[in-house]
Write a structure and sequence with these properties.
The chain has 364 residues and is an alpha/beta fold. It has one domain: Rossmann fold (3-Layer(aba) Sandwich). 39% of the residues lie in helices and 16% in strands. It is globular, with a radius of gyration of 20 Å.
Length: 364
């Protein structure tokens, strides 16, 4: 099955229209694969421009619409969100991992269809920042590729931007199944953290999350040397501001975490996935389904091992896999079919669902 999927993905890539080619589609730009009688139906990649009240600016949103979206205008679809990593952008999953072609291949082999949304998350860690950014300083930075109007946001509420603004946009403009059980989120590296933390913070929005190489335990001490199957009781969490700096490392603390998480344990603990799980279980709220993987040569492997241990200690089920590879696109391309397949099964409509488009489905 794997060989068949990869061969079909290669054939689809060779015949697809370049992502930069645009054509009008419902007020937005669109890119569609070239039709061919020899190939199965292909999905469409398009780009929307979305106003975010949470950020106070407009953002680009890349979307994949499945093969039958245009053919069956009565059908509604689950939605997956895929998040990029630090220094990445909303085009990454299509440009570097050919996500649209992988999805076409999965659908051709019988996987359920879904809409996939790929947002612009800047270097935000997909959270509400602990402090307002230096907006004038950001706008003076001419080395950055992205325009200041989109990157330099006045209100860095990136969690609400994803879970509220973008979810509302997709539901309003596309034929989606709007219940949380039909919506999931995934990401790589920073986006892996974002996917897991957003699902745990908004279980009313996302029913499942997947992470590739995610920084899943930011306040874990010694995360660079966590052994396989570490005991939950052996995990050591930062308890002081100095230990937070130690856990992150000086460069990462200054550049990434202090602006977004703050400089005290209150801010970090409020954003720590293991503590978010603890809050859900204590409140009797169902924890979203969790899938995460990491390469055995990845410098952030210990974060996934530590998170797995924390979940074991809490009695929360999860799926965790280690594979050959490190922190790069070769690894993420290789593992993308696994996260897509797993998430598609989590959000798949079942026989007990109301008919697509029914009143119950709309309210769910």
């Amino acid at each position: 099955m794997r060989a068949r999927l990869l061969a079909l993905a290669g054939a689809l890539w060779c015949t697809a229209t370049p992502v930069g080619a645009q054509q009008p589609l419902v007020g937005a730009t669109s890119t569609a694969a070239s039709p061919s009688a020899a190939l199965p139906p292909s999905g469409v990649v398009r780009t929307d421009t979305v106003w975010s009240q949470s950020l106070g600016t407009t953002k680009r949103l890349v979307l994949y619409l499945p093969p039958s979206y245009a053919r069956d205008t009565s059908a509604r679809f689950p939605v997956l969100f895929y998040l990029h990593g630090v220094s990445g952008d909303e085009d990454n999953w299509v440009r570097h991992a050919r996500l649209h072609l992988v999805m076409d291949s999965l659908v051709a082999t019988g996987a359920p269809e879904a809409i996939i949304a790929m947002p612009d998350g800047d270097d935000s860690w997909y959270t509400t920042w602990a402090a307002l950014p230096d907006l004038p300083g950001c706008r003076r930075d001419t080395a950055r590729r992205e325009s200041a109007d989109q990157y330099c946001v006045p209100w860095p509420h990136y969690d609400d931007y994803i879970a509220r603004d973008l979810v509302a946009h997709v539901d309003a403009h596309y034929r989606t199944r709007r219940a949380a059980r039909h919506r999931a989120i995934a990401g790589l590296s920073m986006g892996g953290y974002g996917a897991v933390s957003l699902a745990l913070r908004y279980p009313d929005v996302f029913s499942a999350a997947a992470s590739h190489s995610g920084v899943l335990t930011p306040s874990l001490l010694g995360a660079d040397r966590v052994p396989a199957n570490v005991a939950p009781s052996d995990l050591r969490w930062a308890r002081t501001p100095d230990e937070l700096r130690e856990a992150a490392g000086e460069r990462r603390y200054t550049r990434w975490f202090a602006p977004a998480f703050g400089r005290d344990t209150i801010g970090w603990y409020a954003r720590e996935p293991a503590r978010l799980v603890t809050r859900l279980t204590a409140a009797g709220i169902r924890v979203p389904a969790l899938f995460f993987d990491c390469g055995v040569d990845d410098p952030y492997l210990g974060h996934s091992r530590g998170f797995a241990a924390a979940l074991r200690g809490l009695g929360v089920p999860y799926t965790f896999r280690e594979h050959a590879g490190t922190h790069n696109w070769d690894y993420w391309r290789a593992q993308l079919p696994a996260s897509l397949s797993w998430l598609l099964e989590q959000v798949r409509p079942v026989a007990s669902d109301a008919p697509a488009g029914s009143a119950r489905d709309e309210r769910a």
